[in-house]
Write a structure and sequence with these properties.
With about 160 residues, the protein is an alpha+beta fold. It is built from 4 helices and 5 strands; from the N terminus they run E-H-H-E-E-E-H-E-H. Strands 1-2-3-4-5 form a 5-stranded mixed beta sheet. The protein is globular.
């Protein structure tokens, strides 16, 4: 990792910058939904944590949202630490920033009594899948999700 970056817990003064990075990770999410989710995360610090990668100029260059879950695909214990969101700006990738964020989240989860850490990503997100695997994460399943709008005319068999 570049020596000018530090990974720390999110501070109140960094909330807007965290929101900007979230909108880069999930660009299709409306701003009001981001704000609600961020509020929910911050409202339950015993179950959630946000870590940020901060540059010398005090700008945020990445973040990781972690939570505590009771179950996760492929896990055998509980509670489980879970990577809910993980983003590093493109120019800071492949320099240890993502690994430092993961290490901070894993340490937090262990301090909460977790023996396992889990995560997920889209099946076609080859960069994220490779990053997880490079950090020792084992891929345990690939899912296809389906939906149907029930307000449409029923399907004829």
């Amino acid at each position: 990792m570049k020596p000018t970056l530090r990974v720390l817990s999110l501070k109140r003064t960094q909330i807007n910058a965290w929101g900007e990075l979230r909108s880069r990770l999930w660009p299709d999410c409306p701003p009001d939904k981001h704000r609600r989710e961020m509020s929910d995360i911050l409202a339950e610090p015993e179950f959630n944590a946000v870590f940020v990668a901060i540059g010398r100029e005090r700008a945020l260059h990445g973040f990781l949202e972690a939570s505590i879950r009771m179950s996760a695909e492929g896990c055998r214990s509980h509670p489980i630490g879970y990577v809910e969101g993980w983003y590093v700006e493109p120019e800071w990738r492949a320099q240890g920033v993502g690994a430092a964020l993961i290490a901070k989240a894993e340490a937090w989860a262990a301090s909460q009594g977790c023996r396992e850490m889990a995560s997920d990503t889209q099946a076609d997100n080859t960069i994220s899948r490779a990053a997880h695997q490079a950090l020792g994460y084992e891929e345990v399943s690939t899912l296809a999700h389906f939906r149907k709008d029930l307000r449409q005319a029923p399907h004829q068999a």
